[in-house]
Design goal:
It comes from Microbacterium flavum. Keywords: DNA-binding, Repressor, Transcription, Transcription regulation. This is LacI family DNA-binding transcriptional regulator. GO terms for molecular function: DNA binding. This protein has 364 residues and is an alpha/beta fold. It has three domains: 45 residues, no CATH class; 90 residues, Rossmann fold (3-Layer(aba) Sandwich); 152 residues, 3-Layer(aba) Sandwich (Rossmann fold). It has twelve helices and 14 strands. It has a six-stranded parallel β-sheet with strand order 2-1-3-5-7-13, sandwiched between helices. Strands 9-8-10-11-12-14 form a six-stranded mixed β-sheet, sandwiched between helices. Strand 10, helix 10 and strand 11 form a beta-alpha-beta unit. Helix 5 packs parallel to helix 11.
């Protein structure tokens, strides 16, 4: 079907093309109200739709946003970030141009320049996981960083609050009555995620606040995979009864899935004999465990919305501070109280700790 042109509207209304253009673009002119109404009626009758691109160029807006990512577009794990960004764009009549660079700097630079040539209204620079990134020289100064922070700061950015998430995870275990809580951590060294140390700090903070002396043997490391989680959990479960943890806080859900295997291999039950909490709320992993895994959710969708709202000027984003998004606990069935005999010991120690604290408090 041939596209309806402005000349078709002019013929139907019996006026010039210039008159049609002035009317449909609401340009101030001496055209009578009657003629304006006739032009609009003719445009509706022939099904004419003005070019949004042409209008955008006249207004110096293209109603498009460029989103540069490393691996998000091809990774279901972080696809919710795209959904959040695209929902905001759609709600505001914007089209998102998405470029997945696979982390290639040459491809990334070419993509940024191409988007700038397309005169996109805004750009978002996204990463698949929380990290500090070098700022590409060609990236516009007003670009928004999503799930990453720029080296040197000074840019608008949003990341998950992994420290607070670690605090929330361990508080969940303490509230259930656990004192022997282990942290199944990522391996130290190059490639270790920033989030690992932030979650570790949250773990230590909660134990200290609860008056729990953390046994160094409760902090183990493994590859960030199910195999790594299983090997690390095996180390913990091999401890003698007096030191074996009753709860595991795992760096991510894949490691937690591996811990499930280690627990079952020893004939133990979750959460009756040991509780497990993960992190990420990863699709097709956390909720599919048996029992379903209690975990801390990465706020991918919310971060995507925040970044797009800031990029479009709907929300204010501070350039001198990274916005940290809350990571909520998703409660399922893998956390319960410690085994009965350990629970009695924990309650006895808690009572003694309270009495010592009371005795140490000076009278007023």
């Amino acid at each position: 079907m041939a596209r309806v042109r402005i000349s078709d509207v002019a013929a139907a209304a019996g006026v010039s093309v210039t008159t049609v253009s002035l009317v449909l673009n609401d340009v101030e002119s001496r055209i009578s109200a009657e003629t304006r109404e006739r032009v609009r009626a003719a445009a509706a009758a022939v099904g004419y739709a003005p070019s949004s691109v042409a209008r955008g160029l006249r207004q110096q807006r293209t109603n498009t946003v460029g989103l540069i990512s490393d691996q998000i577009a091809t990774t279901p794990f972080a696809g919710r970030m795209l959904a959040g960004a695209q929902d905001v764009a759609r709600e505001n009549g914007k089209l998102v141009f998405l470029v997945d660079t696979s982390g290639d700097r040459v491809v990334e630079d070419a993509a940024i320049r191409a988007l700038a040539a397309q005169q996109v209204d805004a750009m978002i620079y996204a990463a698949m996981w929380h990290r500090v990134v070098p700022v590409p020289e060609s990236l516009p100064a007003d670009a928004v960083f999503l799930d990453c922070r720029p080296e040197g700061g000074g840019r608008r950015s949003v990341v998950p609050d992994d420290h607070a998430g670690g605090v929330a995870a361990v508080r969940e275990l303490v509230a259930a009555g656990h004192e022997r809580i282990a942290y199944v951590d990522a391996v130290p060294g190059p490639g270790r995620p920033i989030a690992a140390d932030l979650r570790l700090a949250g773990y230590r903070e909660v134990l200290a606040d609860a008056g729990i002396a953390a046994d160094p043997l409760w902090h183990v490391h493994g590859e960030m995979s199910a195999r790594g989680g299983r090997d690390a959990a095996d180390q913990l479960l091999a401890l003698d009864d007096a030191r074996r943890p009753t709860a595991l806080f795992c760096f991510n859900d894949r490691m937690a899935a591996g811990a499930y295997l280690a627990v079952r291999a020893r004939g133990l039950r979750i959460p009756h004999d040991i509780s497990i909490i993960g992190y990420d709320d990863q699709q097709l992993i956390a909720a599919e465990q048996d029992p379903p895994l209690t975990t801390v959710a990465l706020p991918h969708y919310e971060m995507g919305r925040w970044a797009m709202e800031v990029a479009l000027g709907i929300r204010v984003g501070e350039t001198d501070a990274t916005h940290q998004m809350e990571c909520p606990v998703i409660r399922r069935d893998s956390v319960g109280p410690p085994p009965a005999h350990v629970g009695k010991q924990n309650r006895r120690r808690a009572s003694q700790h309270t009495e010592r604290s009371r005795d140490a408090t000076p009278e007023r």
